[in-house]
Amino acid sequence: MLTTLLRDSRALGALAVPLILTQLAQVALTTTDTVMMGLLGTTELAAGGLAIVIFNQIRTMGVGLVTSVGNRIAAAAARAERIGAVGEGAEEAARREVRAVVRAGLAVATLAGVVGALIMIVTGQLLTRLGQDAAVVGLTRTMLYALSPGLLPCLWFQAIRQFTVGMRRPQALLRITLASIGVNAGLNWVLVHGTFGLPRLGLTGVGIATSAVYLLSFIALLLAARRDEELAPLLALDITRADATTVKQLLGLGVPIAATYGSEAGFFSVTALMAGSFGPEALAAHTAVNQLVYIVFQVAVGLSHAASINVSRELALGNHDGARRTKNTALACAAVVMSVVGISYLALPRLVLAPFLETGSDRALTIAAHLLVITAFLQFFDCAQNIGVGLLRGLDDTKSGFRITLIGYWAVGLPTAWLLAYALRLDTAGIWLGLLTGLAATALLLLRRYDTALAATQPRPAATSA
Description:
Layout: H1 2-40, H2 42-82, H3 88-126, H4 134-147, H5 151-166, H6 171-193, H7 203-227, H8 244-276, H9 280-316, H10 320-347, H11 349-357, H12 362-394, H13 399-423, H14 427-457
């Protein structure tokens, strides 16, 4: 049993670790932008932060639309491996399926990028009607104009990323993302301050730098895939030849994923507004702890993607036991990481919070330290529910994941947070206990649904006659 768990953990880790490190590197990328905006001033930070919130909401949902590309490619690649011995014709048919999914994924990314960019521009025009400060709105609108062209290469990158992950060759992702941090920082400095004879663009320079980095990252990943002997023959870029049926299938899977991502982001946004109702110290504490959760959440994202791809692969190979073990392995790996993180929260709360609240008020630091106690347990469920969504995606079941997260987040978590925070007067701690409750309910429902759905895919043994 232990030997099997260790073997499965190594197999999962080979795919999950590069994805986790890539996710953490992307956090560093956005942190660079935030630091640069903060150096420009409070108004610039507020405007840039608002623009990034809008951009990230649309980008996250766009990423959801192409996330299932990895699962479809993993299943097709596994079928090619499984039937390779049957004959070249059967294997080539499976390879054609991979190429069709790549083309369709890029077509969906293109559609989402164009529509999303238009939504960003329109949203910028509507901000004055949402009660925002006029000075902030003007800067936010300009920032959105600079960010909107970057959405298209950003989603192209995600489509190619899912292709490399589905083929179980994600190694180039980490190198490219790490390099993009340095490029982003350099471009930010040059464009914001106008060095080397360039005009001083201020906040707009941050947006242009971000868009440029997305374009360069896409080109770098595309070139890396073209140099890979296994990936290059399957990399089909002509979206005009995209199969309409495959595009429709990807959208059928992707729309619920996008809605799930949007729902989760909205859930946490509402709780931030609730925390703000208890004063600036409570909001500062909530923001600091939420950022810690977001950083650690990248581990869950990597494990979820890896588990999802492995489930798709195991089922395509007809290995239901392997798909069942994938769930247990992913949850075991998550438990180990979350235990280490949780112990650090409980043992060294002030050290953990120092980067965020070192110069803040003592009350904010005290509130945040109390929230860390809740967060030490919350992160187990946060990680488990994200893994659950990925496992169901591996079964091509994205609608159940969306429905369950609606129940867990909005029907259980949010009412509980309101009851504990306001009716029982637990304030910010009540909000986070509500978050914990919602995430726990979501995790349990998702994992139960996975077990049920997986059992339904198991072929029944043929009846024997006496």
